[in-house]
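Troubleshooting: if your tokenizer reports a length mismatch, compare your output against this known-good record of 382 residues.
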Amino acid sequence: MTDKKVCAFCDSEITSINDSKEHVIPNSIGGRKKIRGFLCLTCNNSFGQSWDATLATQLNWFSLAVGIERDRSNNPDQIVRTVDGTELLLRANGTMTRKDPFFEITESEGKARIRLFARNEREYREMLRGIKKKYPNFDLDGELKNIQVMPFRVDSPQQYRLELGGPVAGRSLVKTAIAECAAVGILPYRCEIGIRTLKTPSDNSGFALFYIRDIVVNRPKDMLFHLVAILGDSEKGFLLAYVEYFGVMRVMVKLSSKYEGESFTSVYAINPQSSENLNLFVNWDIPTNEMDAAFNGFGVVKKNFDFACKNATAIASHSRLKRERQYVYREELSSVLSQLGIQPGGIPEPKDRERFNRLMDEKVGPFSELIKEHPKMPTLKK
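Known-good structure output:
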């Protein structure tokens, strides 16, 4: 085998025509780093629509909560249900609203009583126009002048189903591990176990969930991160990877049992919100029996798994609340500036400041508690 560049999956030679920019960590969950000479265009597109898409679906709630920005489009809205059965929609801007608008008309003694809930002003206007068509005497203009946006409060606890891993999403993590090896100079064909895992749908032995112990030494307490760590052990012939996303998905990957290069470790970690590189460390001093247990299907210690999920959810929820407050304030500020004929980002003239302050009080008033109350970071005990 020569060191020429071939596609890690289909073995076709990588040329300037069929080369692709492959995200080491999928862009759909916040990955930015790209490499060339790893996958051909055809395989890149295929795996993005299968392995990476399945992984992104599993982690979509976290992506929405912390505000992951894709290169193209937004992450899809996600339905979240409350304990009392209400269906909510978590959106890319961090806000939540009812999944569906509410509309009810009750007629009695020649009068119609109307109750409605709209998710945004445009939807509200459309609903009012529908009422006007059915009831010609309805004062549409008067109601449109009295539009008032109010915060939607959720009193019932929220719940969502979290599914992690599986053969499809698992292969996305294996691909990421091999891609990071390529980024540090280890060509894909040297990861023979990882490549076999990618090419053999029935072989899932090359990756395993790992919640037996926390191997991230300096884990941030208030930040979710993505991490890909590589261990090359020439003495034992192992090439291993540990991949972690949002603090909740933690997977160990077997890449090779024939590694002959120099022993080394590497860690690539980022804050997926800001794309900032992080200086994190991984402790590879893992007992053999724990590693064997993981790859034999016993890598999930319930108390550790539960803590990882609760901690990641708490951090993500805290981030979402902060983003929601910022979004509400920006929207109302933009509306007031527009009413005053001021460009976005502009500053009111002295003659307009009194009116600006009054309009902001009117706009932000219903949201004052929401905006001013700074969300507290939950503290969990392990």
